[in-house]
Design goal:
9 helices, 2 domains
Length: 181
């Protein structure tokens, strides 16, 4: 039976939903655990993904172009990315910005990065801030405030977005060199 046949069966036989749910669950959860490690949340996301598949299967012209597993994984992946994006994009008062690098990572990511490396990056950021110039501002706007290069160029009075990209690249290199020394 092809995946398109399975989708057709899913649309016409509600009992088949449980079978599809069970068949693809373990793989989807393993797939998501590589990106996020909260089993309860992952269960919810997988359940939502199967419901999306079920609802889409009811649409008259719905055609699945990949396997059901791939379809479910991509829904799960998109939900996780949206979750992570929303977590990162929480509003933060830029005036309260403290160049503590641990603030730039969520708890799981922070634990994965070695303390020694974080200290080196923090020190390098502090040196950039103390040195003045635009590097600290550019990096803060790009990574902490998540401004676009166009917005950074506008705020810092640069000629255009390409100038901001070029300067940001130089600043990252400067930061990287000072961390590696």
């Amino acid at each position: 039976m092809t995946d398109q046949d399975k989708v057709y069966k899913l649309a016409n036989d509600e009992r088949y939903f449980a079978q599809v749910y069970k068949d693809h669950k373990d793989y989807a959860l393993r797939f998501m655990r590589r990106m996020y490690n909260d089993d309860e949340l992952l269960q919810d996301i997988y359940q939502d993904a199967t419901i999306v598949l079920y609802e889409n299967s009811k649409k008259p012209n719905f055609q699945i172009t990949h396997s059901i597993q791939t379809y479910l994984n991509s829904i799960c992946r998109n939900r996780l990315l949206t979750l992570r994006r929303n977590k990162v994009n929480k509003l933060v008062n830029a005036d309260d910005f403290d160049p503590t690098i641990s603030d730039w990572f969520d708890d799981e990511e922070y634990n994965e990065v070695k303390e020694e490396r974080l200290t080196a990056i923090e020190n390098a950021l502090l040196k950039l801030k103390e040195a003045g110039g635009q590097c600290y501002q550019i990096l803060k706007m790009q990574y902490y405030e998540r401004f676009s290069m166009g917005k950074i160029a506008q705020l810092l009075g640069m000629k255009n977005e390409d100038s901001a990209k070029s300067q940001a690249s130089k600043c990252r290199s400067k930061l990287k060199k000072s961390v590696l020394i």
